[in-house]
Fold this sequence. Notes:
Chain A is α/β, with parallel strands linked by helices and about 325 residues long. Chain A has helices spanning about 5-15, 15-25, 30-45, 50-60, 75-90, 105-115, 135-140, 160-175, 190-205, 220-230, 240-255, 290-305, and strands spanning about 65-70, 95-100, 120-125, 140-145, 155-160, 180-185, 210-215, 235-240, 265, 285, 310-315, 320. Chain A folds into 3 domains: about 5-50, 434 Repressor (Amino-terminal Domain) (Orthogonal Bundle); about 65-160 and about 290-315, 3-Layer(aba) Sandwich (Rossmann fold); about 160-285, Rossmann fold (3-Layer(aba) Sandwich), CATH 3.40.50. At the A-B interface, helix 4, helix 5, strand 2 and helix 6 of A face helix 4, helix 5, strand 2 and helix 6 of B.
Amino acid sequence: MRKITIRDIAREAGVSPSTVSRVINNSAPVSKELKERVLSTIKKLGYNPNPIAQSLRKGFTNTIGFIIPDITNPFFSLIVKGAEEYLKRKKMFLIVCNSNHSVKEEERLLQTLMERKTDGLLFIGAGNRNKIISTSLDKMKIVFVDRVYEKCKAPYVVSNNYKGMKNLIDYLVDTGHKSFVFLNGEKNTYSAKERLRGFLDALKEHKIEEYEVVFGQFTYESGFALAKGLKKIPDAIVCGNDLMAYGAIDALEERGYKVPDDVSVTGFDDLPFSKHYKPSLTTVRQPFYEMGYEAAKILYRLINSKPNIETNVVLETKLVIRETAKPKGGRR
Amino acid sequence: MRKITIRDIAREAGVSPSTVSRVINNSAPVSKELKERVLSTIKKLGYNPNPIAQSLRKGFTNTIGFIIPDITNPFFSLIVKGAEEYLKRKKMFLIVCNSNHSVKEEERLLQTLMERKTDGLLFIGAGNRNKIISTSLDKMKIVFVDRVYEKCKAPYVVSNNYKGMKNLIDYLVDTGHKSFVFLNGEKNTYSAKERLRGFLDALKEHKIEEYEVVFGQFTYESGFALAKGLKKIPDAIVCGNDLMAYGAIDALEERGYKVPDDVSVTGFDDLPFSKHYKPSLTTVRQPFYEMGYEAAKILYRLINSKPNIETNVVLETKLVIRETAKPKGGRR
DNA sequence: TTGTAAGCGTTATCAA
DNA sequence: TTGATAACGCTTACAA
Lengths: 332, 332
């Protein structure tokens, strides 16, 4: 019960291995007669080409890697789903790798994917201190998703964090909020920086000077801890993402504050769950699925050197008004 | 800037390629002197063996696949994390694949992983109608996780769904619940069947005959829809998993029922979020992380034909009592 | 202990 | 249009 090879097919069909290869790959004209004979013996013997041998010879693998910081965060896995959808159609194989928020692990994965001659990479970085990512760019096509490395010129797909945050703050100011705290995520992260920029610009425009910015991580636990430690409770607590908002709300309620009556809390992402959270979360929707889909598309076109319409994509976000932010009246 | 091969190292170090190979793999004795020379030139030229060539020659890939039904469900991704942890230590590469609840997609992935000579597979099936999984067992080591295929004799790691559910029902009966509805997940799924068995056995023991069982899917949406359609509201609504419970609670509240005052609702899994849900969820904790870790361990030992302590593992669950179930008094 | 050479299963080049 | 042959980069008999 040995594995069937191209030679078996050749022998059985009475042709040379090269002819079989040509039929499989449509890489050169083969007479109709031989083609049919080859095709039918392939079917008869149930032959499948060995992808490893193909890769060794061809130098590519029909494989895309996707490195994400946290497989358990729905935000990332929903992006993956979008990429998956596109690549499935293109018959590419997607390998999902979890760096677990560790730059070191991320470097290890990057290394492995390069050695294995992955054709391209979709990349959501764990921070901005990855040392080998720049050198990787020469060896592999990479598209950055959600988080951009300012240091390296490379295609990216992100959402408009700046504008998303700005619109949110505009809304909060319009509804009477006068003092703010921003519980932000990882300081070095692109998205955290962009959101901060939006936050600060908006406040400046509205001439609001009563605010504070704190950095933590994009997790429930971090949101909880930061909100626990807050000295002064402002009108609105703006969180780096939805998970942090969940954490902050729980912490505030433990401290005896009612959300949104005593303090408004907002998120960023609009995870599917945020609609069902109690109280339901006022937040900014990011187009996860589309982000993954677009990034995969760009990467695919890059790999196959098709002209790309646009390799730097900024997708728009949408303000989602729900219950955790409530108009503040004559307070203070 | 060509890629460095084993031949380059051999030439530079003044030895044969086989010697270099021997040094890399420790596959045969090499004199101390040559060994050092080889090692230092490897370092000097920054050489890494080509894993594809190695795989072609050796017939294995140091790669494990993990097929899961839904990458966005934390339950599955937490299991993956456990497996990841173990395999990282063993220097194995883990490929996560998402079947998206589709048996067809699952078959496609299985096929691909086999062709690519993945050394082993961790498998959480999307249903029980996969046609090629049995034949795959000859070609690849497979460990079933969370869901067993009764049809095929293969190692598995599951949690004790039966006992977990039975204990839950015992608790509900003890706290005065007298009528039940079970909103279960996919009918053909191992875990759904086991939980149902526990449910029915417990009720029988307590001589309770007022109950109903409905099947849906293990998703929020399904829980919501099933609860919406319920004719009679019982004392307790037992859900197939936590996500379904979230959906059911929302549906019930939309219908004007208070949880747990009017009706108790329970989940199964104890997702990290269930503690923070409002009201916090009474549920059954499954040891996700451990499930993944144990499964990876068994698979690894199987691949390297080390004696396995035990290849069929049933991990215990734990009843987690929180707010969504409330003692029912003299009702009805 | 070391080197030579064959082979893993393909595909690309060249000649016919 | 087809076939023989070399090569992709490595490991492993086998010979020395």
